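2024-03-11 09:14:02 INFO worker-7 job=invfold-0412 stage=load source=structure_tokens
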């Protein structure tokens, strides 16, 4: 199941709905296995967030929405009179306590109660760090002179001298240090005051608490604010940094995804606190301690709901996360909040919570006069997505073939229309194709209320003009969009679909920004065709030859060419002359433009993101030869897009498959189009922007940023005694750098005997692609092999992988390759990811320069991106060589222009890894 984050809506109080939801959740969780590290009474989805429809939950979305609208969902006496409209959330924690929240329009969640919980945890860390004795009287730290002095002048007199730090931990909220408005002003908060503590009877002091003299039943949150002051002084740093380093980072919550607002900032914002005299007077100076801002409840913590649930899980599991004890269970407690807070959500999204009730059933039974409800004994936490079902397949389809669409130069393109047979106008889904495809998809979308339009590229499948791959598609796609958007059957909104070639035709047209184009969904496309046909200066030969020879006419495509017939031919460009059709001559053009020049820029999008307004959903796979290009596009749209919708709405999904195997399920794609073209609340916009398949763990996971902010860039240094040749050599990968006096490793690269492609990000030749074993390659003497010791624990590598290589060659130009493999306990070495760098392109893809033979250069070799869990007992292995054929064209080591010569030279390669030249692999390790 997918880990779903949600933008949560109103905080419902309906008894009827609580009963319905409790019953639905019991059924939902009845067959789920309890995670190994959880106590038996706890059920929590962890990385697998549950997603169900309203129908599955026994709900009617419209009726539920009306129920919330009729309910008092504005917080009452809890949370102020101006909470952000329509934003509520909740997470249940250990012992039935509730961390309850409400949030702002950006769907981040703010909670003073969560601030109390985190402050308690931080207090426990302070005790465990030896900075404080929990049984020491508080007055020894909090009175006298200095930054922590405050108006509670009687703290060190009488019975108040008995107050210890532990008194705070034994009660839900405040203690007698709390300040607030006069006790005669009615308070809505209830708690108990520590035994043995009495009031002075002095109004000068007692007016700082919520309790009438002699009656200890009222409290406020001011004590936690005072605790925040003390902890800031004790740690002498920003408390957010302490929590980041010791807690949240280990939970997978990066520092840029949450914040801890100072109490004064919260108090001054009247969206948080209501207007009545004296409320919040405890938020008084000092606002800083030793130059550090004072945090702590009632300062609010702001975070996303799934991160809130991670913290709730930590509390539920007694302070242990993935086998590591982060904080003692005695310091953990949720906040009771108000018992009537039982669910949160809107018609599309819910967070399910339940009070742990030792009496169990029946559902919905009132307990006492408080209107509380009994729920199952299991603890249920984490967002439950109630996604609105996508538009139903309610239409029959009418098909119209060979519709002519005019281009600006007089050429007409042939198109097939698939139209719903109902009245009115519909949004259109268009694809621009060079080979016969797309009709079945278009017809399927038409059944759901879209006009499917399959447009053939010029010169292909009945379209007029001459086909020049990709060159005319940007303009032609724009002209087709303008025509479609003005047809009587179209409501003016257009989305695009298509895979591979037909994915790039989507992104290429986006910078022209047709007002009709509202979204695209490119599956396995590219940023530029240079990035498709070249990688860091090296021709991707299997792509160039397959793409150049595959299309054998205006309508036909042929089988992939066998490895032996063209790949070894030299000069490389003359291989095009062996083909039996003139279109193969384009191979020569691609080889002539061997660096990133205006030819490639003219129809790519790399320099044009600021012109793009339509959001994109990019789809790829870790073994797709275009996965690197998809990450480039994702970053370009998100960071440089020309509209807020483009920047915020763009997302990416990366699976574990090769090129052609990563298309999302139809219903998810339909949800994407229903949201952007029909305005339906399908929940697709509530998801985090990144969805990845974690290999090794074999699970899907969402992320908010790339690379993940919590990833630690870990250097694995190359070690050897100068004999790292093959897996039988002495090469090692270690965390510590090499000493100063170690010899380099050497090998000879012979273009006549290249290292064969075996596994990896290829788009052709199924016998070679994907996660295959590398045993035969790792036995070669021209392959350097460096391996870690067996791992003591699982190591997750998620993000871009990079090699910093200090190397020399006796050639004027050459290549260096790198391959990351996962070595199983039985010795099987499985391909994970790989990269290559042409030496002359070390500084620029636009202006290559030769190297000086014998000189040591630092080469950055990108192994692209991956997400892989190397299991305990496995080993991480790096290969270094100079060829990967036929995925990449052989570097002939002569420095002559690509494809023009048959001359070959051997290159003597030297890889340095001493203290002065510390070659190292950089892995983004998830803690």
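2024-03-11 09:14:09 INFO worker-7 stage=emit residues=927
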């Amino acid at each position: 199941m997918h880990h779903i984050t949600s933008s949560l809506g109103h905080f419902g109080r309906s008894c009827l709905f609580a009963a319905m939801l409790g019953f639905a959740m019991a059924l939902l969780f009845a067959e789920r296995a309890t995670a190994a590290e959880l106590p038996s009474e706890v059920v929590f989805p962890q990385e697998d967030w549950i997603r169900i429809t309203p129908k599955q939950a026994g709900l009617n979305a419209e009726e539920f929405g009306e129920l919330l609208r009729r309910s008092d969902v504005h917080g009452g006496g809890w949370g102020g009179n101006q909470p952000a409209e329509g934003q509520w959330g909740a997470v249940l924690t250990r012992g039935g306590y509730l961390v309850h929240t409400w949030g702002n329009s950006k769907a981040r969640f703010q909670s003073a109660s969560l601030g109390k919980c985190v402050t308690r945890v931080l207090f426990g860390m302070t005790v465990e760090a030896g900075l404080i004795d929990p049984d020491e009287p508080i007055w020894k730290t909090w009175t006298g002179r200095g930054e922590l002095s405050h108006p509670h002048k009687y703290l060190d007199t009488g019975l108040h001298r008995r107050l210890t730090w532990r008194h705070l931990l034994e009660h839900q909220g405040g203690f007698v240090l709390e300040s607030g408005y006069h006790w005669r002003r009615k308070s809505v908060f209830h708690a108990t005051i520590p035994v043995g503590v009495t009031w002075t009877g002095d109004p000068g002091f007692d007016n700082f608490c919520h309790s009438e003299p002699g009656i200890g039943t009222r409290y406020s949150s001011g004590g936690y604010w005072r605790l925040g002051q003390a902890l800031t002084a004790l740690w002498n740093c920003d408390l957010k940094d302490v929590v980041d380093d010791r807690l949240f980072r280990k939970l997978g919550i990066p520092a840029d995804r949450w914040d801890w607002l100072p109490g004064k900032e919260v108090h001054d914002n009247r969206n948080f606190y209501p207007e009545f005299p004296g409320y919040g007077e405890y938020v008084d100076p000092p606002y800083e301690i030793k130059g550090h801002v004072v945090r702590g409840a009632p300062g609010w913590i702001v975070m996303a709901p799934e991160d809130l649930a991670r913290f709730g899980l930590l509390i539920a599991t007694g302070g242990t996360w993935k086998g590591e004890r982060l904080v003692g269970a005695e310091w953990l407690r949720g906040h009771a909040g108000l018992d009537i807070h039982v669910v949160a959500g809107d018609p599309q999204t819910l967070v399910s919570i339940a009070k742990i009730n030792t009496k169990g059933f029946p559902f919905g039974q009132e307990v006492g006069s408080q209107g509380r409800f009994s729920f199952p004994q299991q603890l249920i936490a984490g967002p439950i997505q109630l996604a609105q079902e996508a538009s139903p397949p309610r239409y029959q389809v009418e098909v119209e073939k060979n519709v002519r669409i005019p281009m600006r130069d007089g050429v007409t393109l042939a198109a097939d229309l698939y139209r719903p047979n109902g009245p009115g106008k519909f949004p259109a889904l268009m694809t621009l194709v060079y080979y016969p495809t797309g009709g079945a998809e278009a017809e399927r979308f038409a059944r759901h209320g879209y006009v499917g339009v399959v447009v053939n590229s010029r010169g292909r499948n009945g379209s007029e003009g001459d086909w020049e791959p990709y060159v005319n598609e940007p303009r032609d796609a724009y002209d087709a969009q303008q025509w479609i958007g003005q047809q009587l059957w179209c409501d003016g909104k257009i989305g695009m679909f298509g895979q591979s070639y037909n994915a790039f035709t989507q992104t290429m047209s986006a910078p022209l920004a047709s007002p009709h184009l509202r979204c695209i969904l490119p599956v396995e496309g590219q940023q530029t065709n240079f990035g498709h046909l070249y990688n860091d200066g090296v021709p991707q030969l299997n792509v160039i030859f397959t793409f150049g020879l595959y299309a054998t006419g205006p309508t036909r495509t042929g089988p992939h060419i066998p490895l032996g017939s063209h790949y070894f031919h030299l000069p490389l460009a003359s291989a095009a002359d062996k083909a039996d059709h003139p279109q193969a001559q384009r191979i020569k053009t691609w080889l002539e433009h061997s660096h990133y020049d205006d030819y490639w820029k003219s129809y790519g999008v790399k320099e044009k993101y600021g012109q793009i307004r339509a959001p994109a959903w990019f789809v790829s796979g870790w073994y797709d030869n275009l996965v690197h290009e998809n990450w480039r596009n994702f970053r370009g749209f998100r960071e440089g897009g020309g509209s807020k919708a483009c920047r915020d709405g763009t997302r990416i999904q990366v699976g574990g498959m090769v090129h052609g195997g990563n298309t999302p399920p139809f219903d998810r794609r339909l949800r994407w189009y229903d949201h952007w073209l029909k305005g339906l609340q399908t929940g697709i916009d509530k998801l985090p922007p990144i969805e990845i398949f974690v290999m090794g763990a074999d699970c899907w996971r969402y992320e908010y940023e790339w690379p993940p902010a919590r990833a630690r860039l870990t250097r694995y240094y190359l070690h050897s005694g100068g004999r790292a040749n093959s897996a039988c050599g002495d090469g090692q990968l270690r965390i510590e750098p090499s000493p100063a006096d170690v010899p380099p490793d050497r090998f000879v690269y012979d273009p006549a005997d290249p290292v064969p492609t075996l596994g990896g990000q290829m788009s052709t030749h199924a016998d070679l692609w994907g996660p295959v074993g590398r045993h035969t390659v790792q036995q070669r003497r021209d392959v350097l092999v460096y391996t870690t010791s067996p791992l003591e624990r699982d190591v997750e590598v998620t993000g871009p992988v990079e090699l910093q290589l200090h190397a020399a060659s006796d050639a004027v130009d050459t290549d260096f390759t790198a391959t990351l493999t996962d070595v199983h306990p039985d010795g099987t070495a499985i391909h994970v990811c790989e990269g290559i760098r042409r030496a002359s392109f070390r500084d620029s893809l636009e202006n290559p320069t030769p190297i000086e033979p014998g000189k040591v250069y630092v080469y950055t070799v990108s192994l692209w991106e991956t997400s892989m869990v190397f299991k305990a007992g496995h080993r991480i292995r790096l290969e270094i060589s100079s060829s990967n054929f036929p995925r990449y064209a052989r570097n002939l080591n002569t420095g002559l222009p690509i494809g023009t010569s048959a001359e070959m030279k051997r290159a003597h390669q030297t890889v340095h890894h001493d203290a002065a030249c510390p070659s190292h692999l950089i892995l983004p390790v998830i803690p």
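2024-03-11 09:14:09 INFO worker-7 stage=report msg="The longest strand covers residues 795-809."
2024-03-11 09:14:10 INFO worker-7 job finished
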